[in-house]
Design a protein that fits this description.
64% helix, binds zinc ion, single chain, three-stranded antiparallel sheet, mainly alpha
Protein backbone atom coordinates (compact mmCIF):
# COMPACT_ATOMS: atom_id res chain seq x y z
CA UNK A 1 0.00 0.00 0.00
CA UNK A 2 1.21 3.47 -0.72
CA UNK A 3 1.05 6.51 1.53
CA UNK A 4 -2.55 7.20 2.35
CA UNK A 5 -1.91 10.80 3.20
CA UNK A 6 -0.61 11.95 -0.15
CA UNK A 7 -3.06 14.82 -0.47
CA UNK A 8 -1.48 16.66 2.41
CA UNK A 9 1.59 17.49 0.40
CA UNK A 10 0.24 17.11 -3.14
CA UNK A 11 -1.03 20.18 -4.93
CA UNK A 12 -4.78 20.60 -4.58
CA UNK A 13 -6.83 18.92 -7.28
CA UNK A 14 -9.45 21.09 -8.94
CA UNK A 15 -12.59 21.42 -6.83
CA UNK A 16 -15.10 18.71 -7.70
CA UNK A 17 -18.40 19.44 -9.39
CA UNK A 18 -21.34 18.59 -7.19
CA UNK A 19 -24.28 16.92 -8.83
CA UNK A 20 -26.50 17.37 -5.83
CA UNK A 21 -26.18 20.33 -3.53
CA UNK A 22 -28.98 18.85 -1.42
CA UNK A 23 -26.90 15.83 -0.57
CA UNK A 24 -23.93 17.89 0.42
CA UNK A 25 -25.98 20.07 2.75
CA UNK A 26 -27.92 17.21 4.25
CA UNK A 27 -24.83 15.20 4.98
CA UNK A 28 -22.99 18.09 6.48
CA UNK A 29 -25.70 20.05 8.18
CA UNK A 30 -24.10 23.27 7.07
CA UNK A 31 -27.41 25.17 6.87
CA UNK A 32 -26.41 26.87 3.69
CA UNK A 33 -28.87 29.22 2.00
CA UNK A 34 -31.02 27.81 -0.77
CA UNK A 35 -29.64 29.89 -3.61
CA UNK A 36 -26.97 28.66 -5.99
CA UNK A 37 -23.72 28.07 -4.14
CA UNK A 38 -21.02 30.29 -5.64
CA UNK A 39 -17.84 28.66 -6.93
CA UNK A 40 -15.84 30.02 -4.01
CA UNK A 41 -17.98 28.05 -1.60
CA UNK A 42 -17.33 24.88 -3.56
CA UNK A 43 -13.64 25.38 -2.99
CA UNK A 44 -14.35 26.02 0.69
CA UNK A 45 -16.21 22.74 0.98
CA UNK A 46 -13.43 20.89 -0.72
CA UNK A 47 -10.91 22.36 1.69
CA UNK A 48 -13.18 21.31 4.52
CA UNK A 49 -13.14 17.77 3.15
CA UNK A 50 -9.33 17.83 3.10
CA UNK A 51 -9.30 18.84 6.77
CA UNK A 52 -11.74 16.04 7.57
CA UNK A 53 -9.57 13.60 5.65
CA UNK A 54 -6.51 14.63 7.66
CA UNK A 55 -8.40 14.48 10.92
CA UNK A 56 -9.79 11.03 10.11
CA UNK A 57 -6.31 9.88 9.25
CA UNK A 58 -5.06 11.04 12.66
CA UNK A 59 -8.01 9.34 14.39
CA UNK A 60 -7.05 6.08 12.75
CA UNK A 61 -3.25 6.30 12.93
CA UNK A 62 -2.82 7.96 16.31
CA UNK A 63 -5.91 6.94 18.28
CA UNK A 64 -6.73 3.69 16.48
CA UNK A 65 -10.38 4.75 16.52
CA UNK A 66 -11.81 2.86 13.55
CA UNK A 67 -15.41 4.01 13.93
CA UNK A 68 -14.69 7.71 14.34
CA UNK A 69 -12.16 7.61 11.53
CA UNK A 70 -14.67 5.89 9.26
CA UNK A 71 -17.36 8.44 10.12
CA UNK A 72 -15.09 11.36 9.33
CA UNK A 73 -13.77 9.81 6.12
CA UNK A 74 -17.37 9.22 5.05
CA UNK A 75 -18.16 12.91 5.50
CA UNK A 76 -15.15 13.88 3.42
CA UNK A 77 -16.11 11.26 0.84
CA UNK A 78 -19.59 12.75 0.65
CA UNK A 79 -17.88 15.98 -0.36
CA UNK A 80 -16.36 14.10 -3.28
CA UNK A 81 -12.88 13.89 -1.78
CA UNK A 82 -11.34 10.95 -3.62
CA UNK A 83 -8.46 10.59 -1.16
CA UNK A 84 -10.99 10.07 1.63
CA UNK A 85 -12.62 7.39 -0.53
CA UNK A 86 -9.27 5.71 -1.04
CA UNK A 87 -8.49 6.01 2.66
CA UNK A 88 -11.82 4.34 3.46
CA UNK A 89 -10.76 1.43 1.30
CA UNK A 90 -7.39 1.31 3.08
CA UNK A 91 -9.06 1.58 6.49
CA UNK A 92 -11.26 -1.43 5.71
CA UNK A 93 -8.32 -3.28 4.21
CA UNK A 94 -6.27 -2.81 7.38
CA UNK A 95 -9.17 -3.98 9.52
CA UNK A 96 -9.95 -7.12 7.51
CA UNK A 97 -13.02 -5.53 5.96
CA UNK A 98 -15.03 -7.31 3.30
CA UNK A 99 -13.81 -7.29 -0.26
CA UNK A 100 -16.97 -5.75 -1.65
CA UNK A 101 -16.64 -2.60 0.50
CA UNK A 102 -12.90 -2.27 -0.17
CA UNK A 103 -13.34 -2.63 -3.93
CA UNK A 104 -16.30 -0.23 -3.94
CA UNK A 105 -14.34 2.58 -2.26
CA UNK A 106 -11.24 2.13 -4.41
CA UNK A 107 -13.33 2.17 -7.56
CA UNK A 108 -15.29 5.24 -6.50
CA UNK A 109 -12.03 7.02 -5.67
CA UNK A 110 -10.70 6.22 -9.14
CA UNK A 111 -13.93 7.29 -10.79
CA UNK A 112 -13.93 10.65 -8.99
CA UNK A 113 -10.25 11.53 -8.89
CA UNK A 114 -8.51 9.45 -11.58
CA UNK A 115 -5.62 9.36 -9.13
CA UNK A 116 -2.77 6.92 -9.80
CA UNK A 117 -2.27 6.20 -6.08
CA UNK A 118 -5.79 4.74 -5.89
CA UNK A 119 -5.15 2.71 -9.02
CA UNK A 120 -1.86 1.43 -7.62
CA UNK A 121 -3.45 0.52 -4.29
CA UNK A 122 -6.38 -1.22 -5.95
CA UNK A 123 -4.01 -3.23 -8.13
CA UNK A 124 -2.05 -4.11 -5.00
CA UNK A 125 -5.26 -5.24 -3.31
CA UNK A 126 -6.21 -7.41 -6.30
CA UNK A 127 -2.78 -8.98 -6.11
CA UNK A 128 -3.34 -9.84 -2.46
CA UNK A 129 -6.67 -11.53 -3.17
CA UNK A 130 -5.11 -13.39 -6.10
CA UNK A 131 -7.02 -11.65 -8.92
CA UNK A 132 -4.10 -11.25 -11.31
CA UNK A 133 -6.15 -10.13 -14.30
CA UNK A 134 -7.59 -7.14 -12.42
CA UNK A 135 -4.20 -6.46 -10.84
CA UNK A 136 -2.69 -6.11 -14.31
CA UNK A 137 -5.63 -3.97 -15.45
CA UNK A 138 -5.22 -1.35 -12.72
CA UNK A 139 -1.41 -1.29 -12.78
CA UNK A 140 -1.72 -0.72 -16.52
CA UNK A 141 -4.27 2.05 -15.95
CA UNK A 142 -1.82 3.84 -13.61
CA UNK A 143 1.12 3.12 -15.92
CA UNK A 144 -0.77 4.73 -18.81
CA UNK A 145 -0.86 7.88 -16.67
CA UNK A 146 2.89 7.83 -16.13
CA UNK A 147 3.11 6.10 -12.73
CA UNK A 148 6.59 4.61 -12.52
CA UNK A 149 5.74 2.46 -9.45
CA UNK A 150 3.04 0.67 -11.43
CA UNK A 151 5.38 0.20 -14.38
CA UNK A 152 7.93 -1.32 -12.00
CA UNK A 153 5.28 -3.69 -10.57
CA UNK A 154 4.32 -4.75 -14.09
CA UNK A 155 8.01 -5.31 -14.86
CA UNK A 156 8.30 -7.42 -11.70
CA UNK A 157 5.25 -9.49 -12.64
CA UNK A 158 6.71 -10.38 -16.04
CA UNK A 159 10.18 -10.83 -14.56
CA UNK A 160 8.81 -13.47 -12.16
CA UNK A 161 7.02 -15.16 -15.05
CA UNK A 162 10.29 -15.30 -16.96
CA UNK A 163 8.83 -13.10 -19.73
CA UNK A 164 12.01 -11.19 -20.44
CA UNK A 165 10.64 -9.10 -23.27
CA UNK A 166 7.76 -7.63 -21.25
CA UNK A 167 10.05 -7.18 -18.24
CA UNK A 168 12.44 -5.11 -20.38
CA UNK A 169 9.60 -3.10 -21.90
CA UNK A 170 8.05 -2.08 -18.56
CA UNK A 171 11.33 -1.62 -16.73
CA UNK A 172 12.65 0.64 -19.48
CA UNK A 173 9.36 2.56 -19.45
CA UNK A 174 9.68 3.00 -15.66
CA UNK A 175 13.27 4.21 -15.92
CA UNK A 176 12.14 6.88 -18.36
CA UNK A 177 9.85 8.46 -15.75
CA UNK A 178 11.22 11.44 -13.83
CA UNK A 179 10.04 10.03 -10.46
CA UNK A 180 11.66 6.62 -10.96
CA UNK A 181 13.67 5.52 -7.92
CA UNK A 182 16.62 3.35 -8.91
CA UNK A 183 17.55 2.44 -5.31
CA UNK A 184 14.11 1.06 -4.62
CA UNK A 185 13.77 -0.73 -7.92
CA UNK A 186 17.14 -2.44 -7.97
CA UNK A 187 16.39 -4.22 -4.70
CA UNK A 188 13.29 -5.87 -6.16
CA UNK A 189 15.16 -7.38 -9.07
CA UNK A 190 18.36 -9.25 -9.69
CA UNK A 191 20.71 -6.22 -9.95
CA UNK A 192 22.87 -7.98 -12.53
CA UNK A 193 19.86 -8.29 -14.85
CA UNK A 194 19.09 -4.59 -14.38
CA UNK A 195 22.71 -3.64 -15.08
CA UNK A 196 22.67 -5.76 -18.23
CA UNK A 197 19.46 -4.05 -19.38
CA UNK A 198 20.98 -0.62 -18.79
CA UNK A 199 24.13 -1.56 -20.68
CA UNK A 200 22.06 -2.74 -23.64
CA UNK A 201 20.11 0.55 -23.63
CA UNK A 202 23.36 2.52 -23.77
CA UNK A 203 24.52 0.45 -26.76
CA UNK A 204 21.19 0.62 -28.60
CA UNK A 205 21.53 2.94 -31.63
CA UNK A 206 17.77 3.62 -31.63
CA UNK A 207 17.73 5.04 -28.08
CA UNK A 208 17.84 8.83 -27.68
CA UNK A 209 20.88 10.59 -26.32
CA UNK A 210 19.22 12.04 -23.21
CA UNK A 211 18.05 8.64 -21.96
CA UNK A 212 21.45 7.09 -22.67
CA UNK A 213 23.11 9.76 -20.58
CA UNK A 214 20.68 9.13 -17.75
CA UNK A 215 21.51 5.40 -17.91
CA UNK A 216 25.25 6.10 -17.91
CA UNK A 217 24.93 8.23 -14.77
CA UNK A 218 22.76 5.61 -13.03
CA UNK A 219 25.18 2.84 -13.97
CA UNK A 220 28.16 4.74 -12.63
CA UNK A 221 26.36 5.30 -9.33
CA UNK A 222 25.33 1.61 -9.08
CA UNK A 223 28.91 0.49 -9.69
CA UNK A 224 30.23 2.69 -6.90
CA UNK A 225 27.43 2.40 -4.31
CA UNK A 226 25.53 -0.88 -4.71
CA UNK A 227 27.18 -3.57 -2.61
CA UNK A 228 26.46 -6.79 -4.60
CA UNK A 229 27.83 -5.13 -7.73
CA UNK A 230 30.94 -3.81 -5.95
CA UNK A 231 31.67 -7.28 -4.51
CA UNK A 232 31.19 -8.86 -7.93
CA UNK A 233 33.59 -6.43 -9.59
CA UNK A 234 36.18 -6.92 -6.83
CA UNK A 235 35.97 -10.68 -7.19
CA UNK A 236 36.51 -10.46 -10.93
CA UNK A 237 39.58 -8.26 -10.41
CA UNK A 238 41.00 -10.65 -7.81
CA UNK A 239 40.35 -13.90 -9.69
CA UNK A 240 41.67 -12.41 -12.93
CA UNK A 241 44.96 -11.77 -11.13
CA UNK A 242 44.93 -15.40 -9.99
CA UNK A 243 44.09 -16.42 -13.57
CA UNK A 244 41.40 -18.71 -12.22
CA UNK A 245 40.17 -20.04 -15.57
CA UNK A 246 38.56 -23.46 -15.04
CA UNK A 247 35.49 -25.40 -16.11
CA UNK A 248 32.33 -23.98 -14.54
CA UNK A 249 30.35 -26.60 -12.61
CA UNK A 250 27.03 -25.19 -13.87
CA UNK A 251 27.46 -24.41 -17.58
CA UNK A 252 30.63 -26.54 -18.16
CA UNK A 253 32.36 -23.74 -20.07
CA UNK A 254 36.01 -23.10 -19.36
CA UNK A 255 36.12 -19.47 -18.28
CA UNK A 256 37.06 -17.20 -15.40
CA UNK A 257 35.51 -18.54 -12.17
CA UNK A 258 34.84 -16.52 -9.01
CA UNK A 259 33.80 -17.73 -5.56
CA UNK A 260 30.38 -17.78 -3.93
CA UNK A 261 29.97 -17.08 -0.20
CA UNK A 262 30.44 -20.83 0.51
CA UNK A 263 33.78 -20.84 -1.43
CA UNK A 264 32.48 -22.95 -4.32
CA UNK A 265 33.40 -21.36 -7.64
CA UNK A 266 31.29 -20.69 -10.73
CA UNK A 267 31.84 -18.63 -13.87
CA UNK A 268 31.07 -14.90 -13.83
CA UNK A 269 27.82 -15.35 -15.82
CA UNK A 270 26.43 -18.16 -13.67
CA UNK A 271 27.37 -16.12 -10.59
CA UNK A 272 24.96 -13.37 -11.64
CA UNK A 273 22.11 -15.86 -12.03
CA UNK A 274 22.67 -17.17 -8.48
CA UNK A 275 22.01 -13.77 -6.84
CA UNK A 276 20.13 -14.41 -3.55
CA UNK A 277 19.89 -18.12 -4.41
CA UNK A 278 21.67 -21.00 -2.61
CA UNK A 279 24.82 -22.57 -3.99
CA UNK A 280 23.77 -25.45 -6.31
CA UNK A 281 26.58 -27.68 -4.97
CA UNK A 282 26.19 -27.39 -1.19
CA UNK A 283 22.78 -25.61 -0.94
CA UNK A 284 24.32 -22.99 1.37
ZN1 LIG B 1 28.91 -21.04 -15.75
ZN1 LIG C 1 28.67 -24.13 -2.15
Amino acid sequence: MQQALSNITDPLPPPPQYTSKMNVNMNLNLNEPDEEVPVGDHIGLYELSIMMNKHAWALDEEDGDFEEAEREYMQAANLNNDYAMMNLAILHEKNDGDSETILMWYKRAIEVGQCVVSMYNLADYYQQIGDIQNMLHYYQMAADRGDSDSMRELALHYYNLGNHEEFRRYYTMAMRQPKFSMTRAIQQFNPFVVVKLMQSIILDPLVDHVFKEKMTTHLASIHTTYKPIIIYNNKIALFERLNHVIECGICYETRLNIDLACAHCVCTDCYTMLHKKPCPFCRL
